[in-house]
Amino acid sequence: MSTGGAPASTLASGRSHGPGGAAQAAVSPTESVKRTIDEVIRILDDREMQRPGRLMERRKLLEKVIAARFDYREMAKRTLPKQWKTLSEAERKEFVDLFQSFLSSSYADKIEGYAGEQVRYLAERREGDYAEVRTRLVSEKTEIPIDYRLMGKSEEWFVYDVIADGISLVKNYRSQFDKIIRDSGYPELVEDLRKKSKEAKPPKPKK
After folding, report:
1. Which of 206, 110, 118 has its CA nearest to residue 167?
2. How far is 58 from 203, CA to CA, in rounded Å?
3. Which residues of 86-99 are buried (b: 16+ CB within 10 A; e: fewer)?
4. Are 149 and 11 contacting, i.e. CB atoms less than 8 angstroms apart?
5. Rounded CA gap, 66 and 142, in Å?
6. What phi and psi values does residue 16 have, to the nearest 5 degrees?
7. What is the CA 73 to chain-centroid distance, rounded?
8. Considering the domain 29-196, what is its CATH architecture?
9. pTM above 0.90, yes or no
10. d(CA 104, CA 102)
11. Is residue 19 classed as helix, strand or coil in its secondary structure?
């Protein structure tokens, strides 16, 4: 779940959410991330959930836990910085739904590759209603920096970007989507996401 040392200007680039934002949140950004990761690991370590007949149930649980912490609308919006302004609310909802379906399945698929790695919480930086939580995923052979960028809404912290090993999830998809739009147009991007969502691979048991 993500990396990097974002400059203060990056954290401050978003809009303030006022007194209803994260300034009054009872739980810190780090604790918010930790609770989600702990719940994900608990599900992955559950032997009953590892049975072949329950893998799809486990996948749905993982997607639900992730969705509770990820702000998919904000993520989707940031992947379409130019196009978003031209979309109707119905078109925005359609894109967010497709993006969430595609990303949640893809992200859960990566998470299911978990093999007992340890998560270390290194630092937290806050600026108003924006924060960054730096972590490191540690195994016997590798250490992968993963940073989470969060924004405060309704007195809670929600992830709007994950930076794994220096690569921003949002920037990565923004680059891909921008190319598709330039080459083939926005409708083609929507159709591409629709196809990828339908083609999402079911979870497989570990060998």
Report:
1. 110
2. 9
3. eeeeeebeebbbbb
4. yes
5. 24
6. -75, 145
7. 11
8. Roll (3.10)
9. no
10. 6
11. helix
What span, in angstroms and rounded, lies between the C-alpha atoms of 102 and 20? 30
Strand order in the sheet with 118-127: 118-127, 130-138, 143-153, 156-164, 167-168
Dmax over CA atoms of the chain, in Å, equals: 50
**Cβ contact 118:130 at 8 Å:** no
| pLDDT tens, residue by residue, 38-92 | 999 999 999 999 898 999 999 999 999 999 999 999 999 999 999 999 999 999 9
CA–CA dist 35, 150 (Å, integer): 14
Whole-number Å distance between alpha carbons of 91 and 189 = 12
Alpha helices in 70-185 (DSSP H): 72-79, 89-111, 169-184
Q: How far, in Å, are 67, 78, 166, 197, 199 from residue 58 at the CA level?
A: 14, 29, 29, 18, 19
Q: Tokens 């609308």 correspond to what residue?
A: 73
Taking the C-alpha atoms of residue 29 and residue 151, their distance in angstroms, rounded to an integer, is 9
Helices 186-198 and 169-184 cross at an angle (nearest 10°) of 120
Q: How far apart are CA 197 and CA 102, in angstroms?
A: 5
Supply 5's token pair. Answer: 């040392």
- Please state the φ and ψ torsions of residue 77, each to the nearest 5 degrees: -60, -40
pLDDT in tens, 83-139: 999 999 999 999 999 999 999 988 888 888 888 899 999 999 999 999 999 999 999
